[in-house]
Design brief:
- By secondary structure, the chain is α+β, with helices and mostly antiparallel strands.
- The chain folds into three domains: 4-163, PAS domain (Beta-Lactamase, 2-Layer Sandwich), CATH 3.30.450.20; 225-308, Signal transduction histidine kinase, dimerisation/phosphotransfer (DHp) domain (Helix Hairpins); 315-466, Heat Shock Protein 90, CATH 3.30.565.
- It is built from eleven helices and twelve strands.
- Strands 6, 7, 8, 9, 10, 11 and 12 form a seven-stranded mixed beta sheet that branches. A five-stranded antiparallel beta sheet has the order 2-1-5-4-3, with helices on both faces.
- The structure holds adenosine-5'-triphosphate and magnesium ion (MG).
- Magnesium ion binds next to helix 10.
């Protein structure tokens, strides 16, 4: 399985292994060089002592051969090196061991150097069957400035190799341990990442299938990116759930609003056709049909407008105009209804107040607000329209003395098709007016709000930019 865990473990293991490989190789070389040079210095020092002591005394006859042998064997054990004396012809004249496999060619090479009065240091592969590396030190034995013999110290470098091998083993053990630790830590870490990701994947699939009830619990005591992702995801599902609910209720609302006028139209038309409606009542019922058709037309226009506004397909056609003139124009359109309902309108808007906005859209706002202020007003009620300028913004208020809106429903009136009281909308509102108003104000990046008291009246205020 190519899981995140697998990828992490492979990557970390490679990093650690390569790291330790480099570290091990460098360490190996350094220690080898160090040990070899240490041994070399030690042997050269000892060779000098022997060449100017024991060997010299033996050659000058101060020391008997047996005595020398005894001393040399003792030294061999102490130095862990074979000790040889050779003559000018490269013949071994004394050997601390029974045999040392050093070939003649090399022996002669060392002899040449030593009899020139120099110290020879060589690494040689010595052995009968299995060749091993040896360190050979050649030291001249000098009498009266003449080299009379060569002293050879030969030691195996195996000891150093063994030490290095041990080091290597330790390094590999540490590497293995590190990998194990990495395995455990990455497991714990990736589980923290993988588990929520798997849950997210599952939940996404369910959401795609239409189940919006998905909620993923946020892991305890964590405020990392994963928790952030989960909470964003939960927020998204919540929004989607709301949206889905809105979509469903929108469809059912639209169907409902379309069906009632259509049912009436159908009833009237059928009545006319099958003569249930007498001929002299025909015009009356056709007028009703016409009203229902107008209502349908209005509804469809409002829906179209709302959808255009919501899809952001409308480009604001900004201009500077007097807000007073817009309000006056709209008031004239309602003149008849205002008179019928005996409403008293007070207009206190600054006639010179110029705002910058989309004139047609703002007319719609004023139109819808006035429509509501009349529709939900009492007979003989009042409407009060006024303007204010605060902090470089125009505040336009339309206040009525109508039925008012209960406090807890004030948030809902902006939603599509929302009507406070279905039975109250005798005047055939569908509940889209304020949604359109809200969208237009939103498009202008302005604000609108309501203050209202049931039975007393409502006050809608919106803001606009000055020119
Ligand atoms: N001035 C007001 N006074 C009292 N209630 C109001 C007022 N304005 C709006 N409302 C309430 O808010 C609801 C939503 O208003 P909105 O203008 O969106 O719809 P509508 O007037 O019913 O229908 P439409 O405007 O689409 O013809 C109304 O049904 C009404 O209950
Ligand atoms: Mg309305």
């Amino acid at each position: 399985m190519k899981s995140i865990y697998f990828k992490f473990v492979v990557t970390y293991t490679i990093i650690i292994a390569v790291g330790f490989l480099i570290f091990g190789t460098v360490l190996n070389n350094l220690t080898e060089n160090y040990f070899v040079s240490q041994k070399q210095t030690q042997l050269v020092g000892e060779a000098e002592k022997i060449a100017t002591g024991l060997a010299l005394w033996y050659i000058t006859g101060f020391l008997e051969q047996d005595r020398l042998r005894f001393e040399i064997r003792f030294l061999r054990d102490y130095l862990n090196a074979s000790i040889l004396l050779i003559n000018k012809n490269a013949n071994v004249i004394l050997n601390s061991d029974e045999q040392v496999y050093i070939d003649d060619l090399n022996l002669r090479k060392i002899r040449d150097k030593v009899f020139e009065g120099e110290i020879a240091v060589k690494k040689l592969l010595i052995g009968d069957m299995i060749k091993r590396e040896y360190l050979v030190i050649g030291y001249p034995v000098v009498i009266n400035n003449h080299v009379v013999s060569g002293l050879l110290l030969i030691t195996s470098t195996d000891e150093i190799r063994q030490t290095l091998k041990m080091y290597n083993r330790i390094i590999w053990l540490i590497t293995l341990f590190e990998v194990l630790v990495v395995l455990i830590i990455t497991y714990a870490l990736t589980q923290r990442i993988i588990t929520p990701i798997k849950k997210l994947a599952q939940a996404s699939r369910k959401i795609a299938e239409g189940d919006f009830s998905q909620k993923i619990p946020i892991p305890n005591n964590s405020d990392d990116e994963i928790s952030e992702l989960i909470s964003s995801f939960n927020y998204m599902t919540e929004k989607l759930e709301n949206l889905e609910m809105m979509r469903k209720s929108f469809i059912s609302n639209v169907s409902h609003e379309l069906r009632s006028p259509l049912t009436s139209i159908r009833g009237f038309v059928e009545g006319i056709l099958d003569k249930t409606i007498p001929d002299d009542k025909r015009d009356f019922y056709l007028t009703l049909v016409k009203e229902e058709v107008i209502k349908l037309n209005n509804l469809i226009n409002q829906l179209l407008e709302l959808s255009r506004l919501e899809w952001g397909k409308i480009n604001l056609n900004l201009s500077e105009f007097k807000i007073y003139s817009v309000i006056a124009e709209e008031l004239i359109k309602f003149e008849k209804r205002i008179e019928e309902k005996e409403i008293d309108v007070t207009l206190q808007v600054d006639e010179e107040l110029v705002v910058k906005a989309d004139r047609d859209l703002i007319s719609r706002v004023v139109h819808n607000l006035l429509d509501n202020a009349i529709k939900y007003n009492k007979v003989g009620g009042k409407i009060y329209i006024y303007s204010e300028v605060v902090n470089g913004k125009a505040y336009i208020t339309i206040q009525d003395t109508g039925v008012g809106i209960p406090e807890k429903l004030q948030k809902l009136i902006w939603e599509r098709f929302y009507k406070v009281d279905e039975s109250r909308s005798l005047e055939n509102g569908v509940g889209l007016g304020l949604s359109i108003v809200k969208e237009i104000i939103k498009l202008h990046k302005q604000n609108i709000w309501v203050e209202s008291e049931e039975g007393v009246g409502s006050k809608f205020t919106f803001t606009l930019d000055l020119k």
